[in-house]
Specification:
Blueprint (H helix, E strand, L loop, with lengths): L2 H32 L3 E12 L4 H18 L2 H11 L5 H7 E6 L4 E8 L2 H23 L8 E7 L6 E3 L2 H26 L7 H8 L3 E5 L10 E4 L4
Antiparallel strand pairs: 1-3, 1-4, 1-5, 2-3, 6-7
């Protein structure tokens, strides 16, 4: 198909694409507004060996995953609930919290999601404080040269909106609707490809000029015909 053919299709059926895009975008926007907002807070722990020793540094890296398991445990969760006076079970809290050790920079990221941003902040801040205190108690029993210190990089200060992403959802809905509309339009054109509507269609199909047409009769029963000449 030539560019003019595509333009002709858009002029005839482009409204289908626009309509479906608007409907899909509006639906995505409305659905996003009905969703419960979820906020996400995070805090980062710094894990540092007591001395710049290759063996101790590798030990610290190996322990990062174990630290993550200990933070994301029912034992720690219960301490967090008791200290922050949260009205939830340890299962509820662990479902809201995620722990991600980063061996590349010796850190542990603690994140929590909740409909209440203050609760999300309380969870990560308290979990970090509880674990740091546990590590301080453990280090007190170790030789100073063999200690692995854990500290909070920055306190949890805010909990930005995590979901729904209304703008992203609306844009994605509009794009999906436009794509669906395009598929429908070209499907309709495919069904209509063998039907001749205008003299231009005849000339394009047969490759010969149209000399004239037989007009429709006054009672509407006539059939339009196209006359052409043979090329010699």
């Amino acid at each position: 198909m030539e560019l003019l053919d595509y333009l002709r299709i858009l002029r005839r059926r482009g409204w289908i694409i626009v309509l479906l895009a608007v409907i899909a975008a509006a639906s995505a926007y409305g659905f996003s507004k009905t969703m419960t907002p979820i906020y996400r807070a995070e805090i980062k722990l710094n894990v540092m060996p007591a001395r710049a020793d290759w063996g101790l540094s590798n030990t610290a890296k190996d322990l990062l995953r174990n630290y993550g398991v200990n933070i994301h445990s029912h034992k720690t969760a219960q301490k967090v609930i008791d200290r922050a006076q949260l009205d939830m079970t340890t299962y509820d809290l662990l479902a809201k919290m995620n722990v991600n050790p980063e061996t590349s920079d010796f850190t542990i990221l603690i994140a929590a999601k909740d409909p209440n941003p203050n609760i999300a902040i309380q969870i990560v801040q308290t979990a970090a404080e509880v674990f740091v205190e546990d590590r301080l108690a453990w280090n007190a029993k170790q030789d100073k040269r063999d200690r692995i210190d854990v500290s909070i990089v920055d306190d949890a200060r805010d909990a930005p909106l995590y979901s729904p992403k209304t703008k992203v959802n609306t844009l994605a809905g509009g794009i999906a609707g436009a794509l669906l509309g395009g598929i429908i339009v070209f499907f309709l054109e495919w069904l209509d490809s063998n039907v001749v509507h205008t003299s231009q269609d005849v000339e394009r199909t047969l490759g010969v000029p149209v000399l004239g047409t037989v007009p429709v009769t006054s009672d509407g029963s006539g059939t339009r015909r196209w006359l052409r000449i043979r090329q010699r």
